[in-house]
Specification:
six-stranded antiparallel sheet; three-stranded antiparallel sheet; 19% helix
Length: 126
């Protein structure tokens, strides 16, 4: 299982790649493998200010539909438009072309509450 060291992680199996007060968010390799073949992604929160733990969209796999939660408070600045036509990018490249949204982080200090790769690996190994 791929868990890159340069990312932050949530208990809900999302990852963040931060650059100052901006972040790219997606779901982890573990999450996409648990979901199975992803067939649809619905994210209609571009331009919205959302609080930590608020739902920013849904992801639909053959077996289930799952909510996507904001890992930190911030404004959704961009949605990955490629996922509209090719949601399977999440299965193929969860840390690259399969990213979900980009956000402007409200409080960079809130990143401290997220897990590093070691802590996330320990969680999924339980």
């Amino acid at each position: 299982m791929n868990i890159p060291d340069n990312l932050k992680y949530t208990k809900d199996h999302e990852w963040l790649k931060t650059d100052g007060d901006e972040a790219v968010i997606g779901i982890t390799d573990f999450a996409q493998s648990e979901l199975g073949d992803i067939v649809f992604v619905e994210i209609e929160t571009e331009g919205e200010q959302l609080a930590k733990e608020e739902v920013f969209g849904t992801i639909e796999a053959v077996k289930t539909v799952s909510d996507l939660y904001m890992p930190v408070s911030g404004e959704v600045t961009e949605i990955n438009q490629k996922l509209e036509d090719t949601p399977e990018l999440i299965n193929q490249d969860p840390y690259g072309d399969g990213w979900l949204i980009k956000i402007k982080i409200e409080d960079v200090g809130s990143l401290e509450g997220l897990m590093d790769a070691t802590a996330y690996k320990a969680q999924v190994d339980e």
